[in-house]
Write a structure and sequence with these properties.
Elements (H helix, E strand, L loop, with lengths): L3 E2 L6 E2 L11 H18 L1 H14 L1 H14 L1 H29 L1 H29 L1 H14 L1 H24 L5
Antiparallel strand pairs: 1-2
This protein binds zinc ion.
Length: 177
């Protein structure tokens, strides 16, 4: 006879033991899932804090894991970024402008220190990158000059005037070039 109600589906069932709470294997599994969900919700902060502490203590492992992830999911991540930019482009650009402006000095200093430490490596990488993308870079320069001819002329004039002034200053010192 059905003298107990299943804790999941509410249907009456005939318990096999004194502690049986569920009518079937399926409901028992669902009960376990629900208990686990409740546990996760109740211990969320604790779990997060444990994760944070572990990552702090295992920075190398954490960085390796992050690297693996970005390599493995490169295409998906790029696609997700593309979609996000399509949807929130203005907001993202504005936020990153603000972010950079707030940290300009900090960023410059970090780049300067990195260059001091790894200058040769960085310069070599930049040289190779320039070689690899030479056509693209030239094309970009051509496009920029075509689109900003006024600015380009202005810059050229400025440089010419500076040169003239420098030559005059040298002449004053008695140096002819
Ligand atoms: Zn049930």
């Amino acid at each position: 006879m059905a003298d107990r109600e299943c804790a999941i589906c509410g249907i009456g069932f005939d318990p096999a033991g004194t502690c049986a709470k569920y009518c079937s294997d399926a409901c028992r599994k669902e009960g376990a899932r629900e208990a686990y969900r409740r546990y996760r919700v109740e211990h969320r902060e604790e779990t997060r804090e444990r994760g944070r502490r572990w990552r702090q203590a295992n920075l190398d492992k954490e960085r390796a894991r992050a690297r693996r992830y970005t390599v493995e999911y490169r295409d998906e991540l790029a696609e997700r970024r593309r979609l996000r930019r399509l949807k929130h482009g203005d907001k993202i650009r504005e936020a990153s402008r603000r972010w950079e402006a707030e940290r300009r000095e900090e960023t410059r200093e970090r780049h300067r220190l990195r260059r001091l430490a790894d200058g040769d490596k960085i310069r070599e990488r930049e040289r190779l990158s320039r070689l690899e993308h030479r056509d693209k870079i030239r094309e970009r320069g051509r496009r920029y000059r075509a689109e900003h001819s006024d600015k380009v002329r202005e810059t050229q004039t400025k440089w010419r005037l500076k040169r003239v002034a420098a030559i005059a200053a040298l002449r004053d010192l008695g140096i002819e070039i």
